[in-house]
């Protein structure tokens, strides 16, 4: 079971979104339309509010939490990569947080930003729209190009498609004991996606 009530507050998840059964979604969490929440993700709305707006992907092992009375928000079409930690921050619309990045309290990341993998965003950090952010502690390095934004948007669409694939076909099963011709003939329903 993925969903937990605390102090009478239950998570809210739009039925068009997919939350993996191993994810943990607690209390004051709102998940909008067409979102993907991956295996072993944790959204802990036990102190404050966690919001994933429409089209967000929150990948495997990601964590969202905040101080009492706070809020962590990922705006529309946000892309939160594997193992990232968000604590009391605001991630702008169509922005990407890189693998194993940490974004701390009261950080405000603008629209269409890209944060490099393994970055550390200090509390109260602010980044304007279209910033490329990297480092530990992170700094604004340059501006996101149109080509980079196309790549990011396509990557997010792949996860929105994955949410629907999971709703349609993902189920627990027994593993096969060997590879046979039928297995080799099988193909995953993956949209063509070519990184730049």
Automatic annotation (TrEMBL):
UniProt protein name: Phenylacetic acid degradation protein
PANTHER family (alphabetical): DYNACTIN SUBUNIT P25, GAMMA CARBONIC ANHYDRASE-LIKE 1, MITOCHONDRIAL-RELATED
SUPFAM superfamilies reported in the protein's UniProt record: Trimeric LpxA-like enzymes
Transmembrane segments: none
InterPro entries reported for this sequence: Hexapep (IPR001451), Transf_Hexapept/Carb_Anhydrase (IPR050484), Trimer_LpxA-like_sf (IPR011004)
Biological source species: Marinicella litoralis
